[in-house]
Amino acid sequence: MNDLYVDVARQLDELKPARLVIAFSGGIDSRVLLHLIARYRQHNAIPCLAVHVHHGLSDHADEWASQCQLWGAKEGIEVCVEYVTLDHDCGDSLEQMARDARYAVLAKHIDTETLMLLGQHADDQVETFLLALKRGSGPKGLSSMAACGGFAQGQLLRPLLKVTRAEIEAYAQQVQLTWVEDESNQDTRFDRNFLRHQVTPVLTQRWPSFYQAIQRSAELCATQESVLAELLQEKLQQAMHADGSLVLDALYSSSELARGQLVRLWLQHQQILMPSRKHTELILREIAFAQPDANPKLKLGKYEIRRFQQRLYCIETEKDFSSWHATLNINEPVMLPESLGCLRLIASEQGNVRLPANKAPFTISFDPSGLSACPIGRSGSRKLKKLYQEYNVPSWQRRQLPIVLCEDKVVAVVGLFISREFNGKDCELIWDKSEVFMANS
């Protein structure tokens, strides 16, 4: 069983990480991984943290969290417990929600110098491959889990990926480890458990080398996908605009087979879940090749695929702030909703906004409905809808631009223009954005 430690130590030595984070569920695979890393740290002074995610799905969740912290103390590795709440009404599968929540909190602990360690093993790889096969996946899906890759700002490693569950159990018993037994792992209503208990035992009994064959197929699919990406990389770079959108002319000039692969590579570059074949076809047919005057969109998980000015955009699902309002006073910052930042009206002799003579208050809105304005340098008012079109603001951003009003008159659309009627030097509007706002002005 010392071979297991030697192999894990070899993988870590090759990567030379500055810091380790272990995804620690307390199950047998992550419990063995914790023990192996504790052995590794006896010979290598490397900071290490174990993260246990408390989903609250089991009546034993609190007990497991406490037990994981005790095991961590025994091994000399700090265990951080992260609590997450799952939205049972969102329509996603429980497995998917738990997985997404787990990776989201793990990402918080990963920086550019950190290697995250996952305890997934050969049995998990077989199950992942079979689930991808069940979905009708191509090479990308069938490549299953990579032993090493990028995660958040750092890297991840699955050092046990070629080790079977039986070998892990043998090691745990030899060194007298205890671990969490999650009762949900016996529930064959979950696809992965069904494969684990009723399918793979039959396959391996018939074909003892089935695991190795799956591993080879996954590696071959990963190689094929890498070659495709390499061959199309130059074309993808030429097709991508500076703001991350995809120029449609590049799709139009490509073969039908290459178009789908370019779209998938582009979405992979956006770091979102790969679309199915059906979704890829919908993106091409209903978004990229829609009528020129259409304003199409396709929901893809929490994202939307949109088209604007002959480019494809992948954006987070549009949020409507039409009902949000606030008063804007001089030198009193206003926090805008969600991640839209902070708006300030600063008294300044070098400003660009005139205060009204009647001292009427300024307010902030995001609803352009029925509003008109005449920007500085223009003659005559136009509806904001028309002005947004002139300023090349994509439709999904139009209700995320703060509008400053004074008695129902538009003072400014922040980031676009000041109204001629309010042109002056009493104060300055400053929009501090917490995130880069993808305006195409």
Biggest sheet layout = 6 strands, mixed
List low-pLDDT spans. 435-441
Instruction: Name the average pLDDT.
Output: 88
* Helical content band: 25-40%
At CATH level 2, the architecture of the largest domain is 3-Layer(aba) Sandwich
Report the radius of gyration as a whole number of Å.
27 Å
Percentage of residues in strands: 15-25%
Secondary structure category: alpha+beta
- What is the tally of beta strands? 20
Number of helical segments? 13
Head-to-tail CA distance between termini:
63 Å
* CATH class wording of the largest domain: Alpha Beta
**Arrangement of strands in the largest sheet:** 3-2-1-4-6-5
CATH topology of the largest domain: Rossmann fold
How many structural domains are formed by the residues?
Answer: 3
Account of the 3D structure:
By secondary structure, this protein is of the alpha+beta class. The protein folds into 3 domains: 2-208, Rossmann fold (3-Layer(aba) Sandwich), CATH 3.40.50.620; 240-316, Chorismate Mutase Domain, subunit A; 325-432, no CATH class. The protein contains 13 helices and 20 strands. A 6-stranded mixed beta sheet has the order 3-2-1-4-6-5, with helices on both faces. Helix 5 crosses helix 8 (191-206). The longest helix is centred in the middle third of the chain and has 30 residues, at 210-239. It is globular and about 85 Å long. The termini are far apart. The model is unreliable at 435-441 (pLDDT under 50).
Key words describing this protein structure:
441 residues, Rossmann fold, six-stranded mixed beta sheet, globular, disordered C terminus, Chorismate Mutase Domain, subunit A
